[in-house]
Design brief:
Elements (H helix, E strand, L loop, with lengths): L30 E6 L5 E6 L3 E7 L1 H5 L7 E8 L4 E3 L4 E3 L5 E4 L8 E5 L5 E5 L10
Antiparallel strand pairs: 1-2, 2-3, 3-4, 5-6, 7-8, 8-9
GO molecular function: protein phosphatase regulator activity
Organism: Cebus imitator (Panamanian white-faced capuchin)
Protein name: Protein phosphatase 2 regulatory subunit Balpha
């Protein structure tokens, strides 16, 4: 990333693959949006199949502030289903277009996701019966 700051530029690199590299990828599995939470500890991805997958940074990488940071699957849920708008005679796809994390007010983490047509879906990112220690 180029910038006027000189030597403090952030260097991004691809360092992690989930799943086998040679697997055929279904259209619904293609990631359509990515959003880190405010601390960078959680990463939410949305795909063309309407699913949201939340990844959590591994504990040992939290200690090292400039490490590459491995992320593991933390939670997965179906955010949007395909629908039909009868008034407009239009199919509404389930593809997630945007994800936004809400500002954290307590230990809970919340996010919003949208497919661009049916508004935002509100989600608690924690799996049921879990305790957030962050």
């Amino acid at each position: 990333m180029a910038g006027a700051g000189g030597g403090n530029d952030i260097q991004w690199c691809f360092s992690q693959v989930k799943g086998a590299v040679d697997d055929d990828v279904a259209e619904a599995d293609i990631i359509s949006t990515v959003e880190f939470n405010h601390s960078g500890e959680l990463l939410a991805t949305g795909d063309k199949g309407g699913r949201v997958v939340i990844f959590q940074q591994e504990q040992e990488n939290k200690i090292q502030s400039h490490s590459r940071g491995e992320y593991n699957v933390y939670s997965t849920f179906q955010s949007h289903e395909p629908e039909f708008d009868y008034l407009k005679s239009l199919e509404i796809e389930e593809k997630i277009n945007k994800i936004r994390w809400l500002p954290q007010k307590n230990a809970a983490q919340f996010l919003l996701s949208t497919n661009g047509n049916m508004g935002w879906t509100f989600s608690d990112s924690l799996p049921k019966n879990s305790i957030w220690e962050g």
